[in-house]
Amino acid sequence: MSASRHFQPLAPQPSLRVARDVNSLRRPVRPPTQSPTSRSTKHRPAPRRRKKQRPSRAGLAAETMLKLLVNGVLSAGTIFTLTSLFPYYWAQQAKLQEVRQQVQTTELEVMGLQEDFNRSFDPSQAQSVMQDQSGLLAPNQRRVVLTNQDPN
Q: Residue 29, SS3?
């Protein structure tokens, strides 16, 4: 069998017209099957419309009342929860304020202790620190004691 037997050129279909312009080359144009006048003479009945089923008024009222009831219960629960949480919140705020005050006083104490620590290890102030801690004076110094004398 040769390759020429398997491949045969396709013949154009007789029912299709080939368009001549560029835009219509993408797909063939079919000839009209009916004339425009015959189309208008046929009468098709209009499609029937279905009636929409409306829920009953009692059903709508019941649904609305149920929604209102559920929302009311949720609102009451929210209000109850908030009212029970506010005292806890205020107590926590008071504790926080107390802790902040303690932190401030502790920071002041730490600053004072750090100054004393730095003074203790400062070589230029070593002699004055020894005098303060021991109560002894250098040989060239004398202790001065001030007394309050009453002129009367």
A: strand
Question: How far is CA 96 from each of CA 93, 100, 101, 106, 124, rounded to the nearest angstrom?
Answer: 5, 6, 9, 15, 43
Which residue reads 């007789």 in tokens? 14
Sign of CA dihedral 118, 120, 122, 125: positive
Check if the beta carbon of residue 16 is closer than 8 Å to that of residue 29.
Answer: yes
The answer to whether 25 touches 19, Cβ cutoff 8 Å, is yes
H-run or E-run covering 93: helix 57-120
Tens of pLDDT along the chain (152 residues)?
A: 555 556 566 655 555 555 555 555 566 656 656 555 555 556 777 777 777 777 788 889 999 999 999 999 999 999 999 999 999 999 999 999 999 999 999 999 999 999 988 888 888 887 788 788 887 777 788 878 888 887 66
d(CA 11, CA 6): 15
77 close to 69: Cβ distance less than 8 angstroms:
no
